[in-house]
Design brief:
Length: 135
């Protein structure tokens, strides 16, 4: 609840309607569902994870990183690009891809962390060990 208040307090308020994306009746809920659907693919999750580690990567490098053909990766990248999750930079004949912003990366990270909790069998997941080491 605290995050909700902090985020919404930074937004302008319209006299007739609150403009907060975190309201249950927000116009963004359906778009968020589309983002989840787009990321509900193991290859796309792997692409986001690979791009998270690098500023930008070519299709061939991404294909090698995720263990798929360049053609298959290109198809996934086209969908991610249409959703503005990735953007491109062209250098001669080569196209380099990068994450458009940190949000998709954060969604994927949180999903991975949730998956760790799902299989932890009552143990503290690895990502919590990292937090303790930093403290």
């Amino acid at each position: 609840m605290r995050t909700y208040v902090r985020v919404c307090n930074n937004l302008r308020m319209d006299a007739d309607k609150q403009i907060c994306g975190l309201d249950p009746d927000s116009q963004y809920v359906e778009l968020a569902v589309e983002v989840f659907g787009l990321l509900a693919d193991a290859t796309r999750v792997r692409i986001v994870l690979a791009l998270r580690r690098s500023d930008e990567l070519s299709v061939n490098h991404l294909a090698e990183s995720v263990g798929k053909s360049p053609a298959a990766v290109s198809q996934h990248l086209a969908k991610l690009r249409m959703a503005r999750i990735v953007s491109t930079r062209q250098e001669g004949q080569r196209v380099f891809y990068r994450l458009e912003n940190e949000h998709a990366s954060q969604l994927v990270s949180d999903a991975i962390f949730q998956a760790e909790h799902s299989v932890a069998n009552g143990q503290v997941p690895a990502h919590h060990h990292e937090e303790r080491a930093e403290a």
